[in-house]
Amino acid sequence: MKIGIIGSGAVGLLSAAYLSKNHEVTLYTRRKEQAELINAGGISLVKGNQESISLHLRAEDKPAYTEPLLIVTVKQYQLEDILNALKKSPPKTVLFLQNGMSHIPLLQTLSAHRVFVGIVEHGALKLSDNTVKHTGFGCIKVSPLFPGERLNELPVLKMQMDHFPFEYIGDWKYMMSQKLLVNACINPLTALLRVPNGELASNPMFNKMAESVFHEAMKVLSLEKGQEEWEHVMAICRNTAQNRSSMLKDIEEGRMTEIDGIIGYLINQAKTEKLEVPVLHFLYQAIRGMEG
Ligand code: PAF
C-alpha cells in the first residue's frame, strides 16, 4: 500500500527503510538536499556489521501527504503545520509516534481521521542524512486514539516483518503514560548529568535521583503497581545502557528538546491536580536553561 512517512530523523529513516520492502513509501523530509540524497542513493540500513540499501522509495520535501496511511515521526513541537494540513485533507489513517503527551489534545481534534498513537521501542541512530543504524531490535506499539476504531484500519499491523514488528495495545492512555514515565525518569537526568542511560541504574547516587523523579511522575500519572513500573524503568536503563538518550543528544547537538511534552506536561497536570512536584520543576528549569 502507499505509505507516507513524515519526518526523516532516526525513526523516520528506520521506518522508511523497513516498510519500503513491502510498501510504496514516500518519505517527507524538511530539507531538499536530504530528499535529493535519498532519491539518488536510497537509505542505508546498518544492522550489526551488515549494511543494506533500500532503493525502492521516494523522498519528497513538499508536504503533499496524499497517501492513505501516514506515519508521523517528527518531534511533538514540530506537529503544528502537519496538523493544519491534515485538517484540510480527506479522511486518512494517521499513526503518530511522538514522545510525551502534551500533543494528545491536539490529536483529539482530528476526529475526521482514523488516528492511532504509538511508541517506538527500537534503538535507532541516524548516522547521516540517508544512513540509519538499527541499534536495538524492539517493536512499535500502536493504539487507537478514538474509541471504536477497528484494528484492521491500520494495515501495517497485518503485514508484520522480521526485526520491525508492530504490536496492538487496547489502552492508549496506559501505553503513553508508561512511556512518559520512562522518558521523564531517563531523558532529563541523562541530559543534565551527561551520562548514558545505564548510569541511572548502576550509579547509586544517580539511581536515587531517578527514583525522586519516578515518585513525582507516578503521583501525577496516577499509575498503580509502583514496584513493577520502577522495574520497567530500570530494565530500560539496563537494556539501553550504552545509549545516549534522545534528550542528551538534543542538548549535545544544540537542538530544542522535548522537555515541554514530557516534564512540561507533567507539571501542568500536577497544577490541575494541586500536587507539589519540586523535582520536576527543577528538571524543567535545568533543561530549558541548557537549551540556551
Ligand atoms: O528518548 C529516548 O532516548 C528513549 O525513548 C529511551 C527509552 C529513553 C531510551 O534512550
Automatic annotation (TrEMBL):
Uppermost EC category: oxidoreductase
Top-rank taxon: Bacteria
Keywords: Oxidoreductase
Entry EC number(s): 1.1.1.169
Name of the protein in its database record: 2-dehydropantoate 2-reductase
